Structures are given as structure tokens and as C-alpha cells.
Here is the input.
Amino acid sequence: MSDNILKGPILDYVPCTTLGQFFFEATKKYENRICQIDVLRDQHETYSSVRKRSTRVALEMQKRGITFEDVVVTCSSSTIDTAIPILATFYLGAKIANLDITLSVRQVTHLLSLVSPKMIFVEESAVGLIEKSVENASLKAEIVVFGESPNYSTFTDFVKPQENEDQFKPVVVDLEETTVMYFSSGTTGLPKAICHSNRSVLHFAFSFDNSTEHLDAVLSFSSFYWITAMIFLTSIFISGGHRIICGNKVEAERTFNIIEKYKVTYMFVAPILSYQLTNFDNYQSYDTSSLRTIMTAGTALSTTQFIKLSTIFPGVDIIGCYGQTEVCVISMFDTKSDKKLIRVKNQSSGKVITGITLKIVDPDTNKIMSRYQNGEIRVKSSAIMKGYYRADSTEVFDGEGFLKTGDVGYFDEDGCVYIVERLKEMFKYLSWHIVPTAIESILFEHPGVKEAVVFGFPKNEEEGELPAACIVVNEGFCVTEKEIEEFVANRVSDREKLRGGVYFVKEIPKTPSGKAMRKEVRKSVINSPNK
Here is the structure.
């Protein structure tokens, strides 16, 4: 194989079982250990309790006609109950898809129409969202409410004791059957439902586990709409650890209190949300010595932010992770073997993990690029999606079966991967490719900048698009457009100067995971009468 193709270690073990069988047997193996702690409710439960409740839900779902051919959907923030119908769906060999309560009716309508669920578990606050979306999509789906409801069955009805529950065993289905679906835009067009099989989910979970340690007490703010929540759920069932649930919002003081009280060992947080932690002055009042790893993903941490986190959490491995819903984790540092690289290459997303093969190509010619040469990242793995649900996915694979990620990046002499930008989010100014995240990392170094999004402001065909920025100012700061422009100009190349202007806003639209919606920001500025 070419030296310009990166190949991770061979994954030496993946259980030859369905996801339902895997989770069910793990609850027996670790039955007396704590599996979940719900901070908001001050509740915890053992693996044995998880098995009992998920078994009862599976039996009730069977009574109501759910079979391996059906799709079940959840729409809930993270609580101690959210994972239970997901496990129950796995036990029945059915397909699960998860929504986020912050999505709009328009978005949920489209996503439900993609998968046509037979049953939907929804938290009480989002019942109206689901009702409107089901009606708009012209679907017939049974609604089950986490909480109280005068109109629908409740989750409490589903966890009541069932006859012969002690004799229950998960349904056996083909390992290549689709078992979980996630929603993504894919490469083009409207969002699609990404299908993962029993085999692919277990493959990416065991690949992640092979490169990870300290999963004893995991704190993550992701809802099950995001594949990261499934990674951590599956990983704790591999190791017998537990997940700590505190909703989907990062609040600095509460987070430090949780780390101290519940002895968190592993924390996952989006880079943009990490600023909540580094802007908290009273961090020294809390004992965070249990924490061993902080993992980030989505975008790279700036060097300045990496240093701030390292100061607040001394001795903690702060690692970036690169992945996509279509294939899960692609690269990250191994906290067991890459200690030195973690510190000196903090802008890297690490090395390709177990079971991944990666190449970087010129997207126009398919020529394989050498080290330090930018190109599109393409990957191959047994953890790659089966395809899109009821839609063609052939266009996202090249002739050698590699997934076209749509991400631009490169690798260095140590095989460390660096993500530059999305192909579709870069823009050109005077024929130069401008990388928005590179300028954003500079903006975040300004003490008055709380949030920032860089985009291309259309000029003309000859010049292309001018770099521009939308900014949310930190409370207590008075910042001018000229000040920001000069701050950036002193730290970037001439072509990266904010010639398109600086625009101050009260808030920046984001996805449920905290990623800025760059296209929405650009569109609002261009269409603003005050631009």
C-alpha cells in the first residue's frame, strides 16, 4: 500500500452478535454496577435495572405490533429514561432514529417523512412539535410520552411488569440489517437518513474503545440525535462504566460541580461550548482531579483555547477527534500511546484509529496527495454506513469504495491528520481559498469576542467573495468594527483581512450540537437592509 495512504491498526475483535444481544448480555455481565446517573433528577440505576426496564418496554412494544421491520423514533433531551426504548428497539431487531427537541417543525416533518416511524417516544415538552410534524408528514405513528399526557400512552405504562419478562431474549436478525439511522445532509441536497447496521455500530464502538481509556464515568452533553451519544453508550457497555446525564446545555459552574461530585473521568464537549468552561473564574474551587480526558469534535480548538483548557485541567489529555456520521470516528490520538503528540500537535485530530484506511486526494483529478498537501479526505472501514435509507448513496463513494467525506485536510510525517475545512464552506477571494475556521480561531483570541462566524461576502466575479465576520460580544465589553478588523489584520495574511465587514449580532444560529450555521449567518447578513 502507498506510503501516502494511512492505515490504522487491525481491529482484532468485534462480537459476532446483534446490537440487541450485545447490550442485553452486557447488562447481565455488569448487572450490579452503576450504568446511568441522572444529575438533574438525582437518580441512578444499575445495569440490572436497565435490563429490566428495557425488557419491559420491548415486550410492550411487541404487544403493540412493533417488529424487526419497523422504525421507532425518539425525540428527547438526555435523561435516565431516554436510552431505554432505544435498547428495547435493538432487542426487537427494529430500526431506531433519534430527533432533537430543538429542531423546527419543518425539519422534523422532513425527517419523519424519510423514515416513516410506527412509534415515537417523545418528551412532554416536545409533544406539540411531534403532533404537528406527524400531521404535516401525513403519518400514522403511535406517540408515547416521557412524562404526563391526557391524550397518549406514557413511558410509565411501558415499564410496568410484564408476564414472563424473565424469559425474554432479544430477537435474532441479520448482522447486516439496518439497526440505527442518523440524519445528515450527506454531500448535497436535503437531509438524508444514514443507515448503520448491527455490524457497523459494533465495529466503530470497539474501534473507539480500542483507542480509548478512562471510560469509567463519562460526561457528555449530546442527545441521541448525534452519533457521539451512541458511541459513549456502547462504549460504557463494553467496559462496564457509567454515563452521567445532565441535559444538553453546558453551564460552567454546574459542570465543575458534576466533575467533582460524580468523579467524572472522561468528558466530551464541543469546542464552541468549551469557552463556557474557560470563562469561569472560580474553577479552582472545585476538585477536578478525577478527570483524565477531554475529547472535542466538530471543529479544531485554537491553540489559545487548548492552553486555557490545559491550565484549568492540568494533567488532563485534551484530544481532538475527527469523524462523520457516515463512518463515526476516523482519527484521534490514543491516550495510551500518543501522550507526547497530544501536547505538541494540539491542532491535529490525531491518527487514524483502528480499522480505518484514509487517503487524501485532489477532488478534481483523484490524484493521491502526499504529506502536507491539502485535499479531500476519503476513508474506508467496516464501520461505514450501509447507505441512505430509501435513497441512492453511490455518489458518495469513489471507484475504490472510499467514502468521500467532503472535508479538506492533510497529514504530516507522523501520520497525524489535520482538518482544514469543509469543501463547500471554503470560499475564494482573488483566486485564493479562504478557510473560515482559521480566521475564526484568531477572532476567539480577542477578549471581547464571545462567538464568531466567518463567511464569504459576495463582491464580483473577478474578486470572488470578501472575508466577513458575524460576532457576538462578551458581556461588559465595548468593541468596534474597526478594532476587530485591525485585530485580525495584524494576525493574518493580506487576503484574509475582513474586507467584507464585521457585523455585530445578539446571537448566532446553531445546530443542536452547538455548531454555527454558517450558511444561515451568511444569508441573513447579505439580505439585511443594514449591511
About this structure: The radius of gyration is 23 Å. The mean pLDDT is 91. The domain at 427-527 is CATH 3.30.300.30 (GMP Synthetase; Chain A, domain 3). Residues 207 and 354 are 5 Å apart (CA to CA).
